[in-house]
Write a structure and sequence with these properties.
The chain has 6 helices and 7 strands. With about 190 residues, the protein is α/β, with parallel strands linked by helices. The chain has one domain: Collagenase (Catalytic Domain) (3-Layer(aba) Sandwich). The protein has a 5-stranded mixed sheet with strand order 3-1-4-6-5. α2 packs across α4, α3 crosses α4 and α4 crosses α6. The longest helix has 22 residues.
Length: about 190
């Protein structure tokens, strides 16, 4: 009798686990990033950017260089210098209404904090990826999506504690839905590649 009860309990547990796994499946959005100028490895920046998004339940996976013809692909490129005419404080730009392209001005990010360039690059990427995912051109009064980071924000970047404001989390989730990404009931979202 006990063995039968154990078998039934195991079967129910397995069914519950399978149901949870199915509930967590999502559609993918591909992130494709060119080589970072002057960096021998990309993975530290990718890892830090992924950690920022994992805090809001979004999983990022990366592809090297050019993207396949995927409707939800986000393409990240680097310019060694910002073109003439860009605001002196701009570190990068995204095209949120187009929903595909991000360009990072490497020289400006490097000047922010040369000894912590990977951390600052990760936060710049998080900011620009959020613009694309939100699908609107706007900034917040606090957090990662501020138009201009101040000294306290820079300190939080170095401490890896600058976060998305609540309104940005909601906009990212709404933007993912409009991009056709299935949002599971549990809240985890996957943006995948590689």
């Amino acid at each position: 009798m006990r063995l039968g009860t154990l078998v039934i309990a195991a079967a129910l547990g397995t069914s519950a686990w399978a149901a949870e796994a199915n509930r967590m499946k999502t559609s993918d959005v591909t992130l494709c990033m060119d080589a970072i100028p002057g960096a021998s490895q990309r993975w530290p920046v990718e890892m830090m950017t992924s950690k920022i998004f994992s805090a809001i339940g979004v999983k990022l996976d990366w592809r090297n260089g050019s993207c396949p013809a995927a409707p939800n692909a986000i393409k990240i490129a680097f310019a060694m210098q910002a073109p003439a005419g860009f605001s002196p404080g701009a570190l990068a730009y995204a095209r949120p209404y187009e929903g595909i392209h991000i360009v990072v001005f490497y020289d400006r990010v490097r000047r922010m904090h040369p000894s912590r360039i990977d951390q600052f690059m990760a936060y710049v990427l998080a900011h620009e990826i959020a613009h694309i995912l939100e699908g609107v051109s706007r900034h917040s009064t606090k957090g990662i999506m501020k138009a201009n980071w101040d000294g306290l924000d820079g300190f939080q970047i170095v401490c890896d504690s600058l976060l998305f404001a609540d309104e940005d989390v909601e906009l990212i989730r709404n933007g993912l839905r409009s991009r056709g990404v299935t949002l599971p009931a549990g809240g985890a979202v996957q943006i995948a590649g590689r």
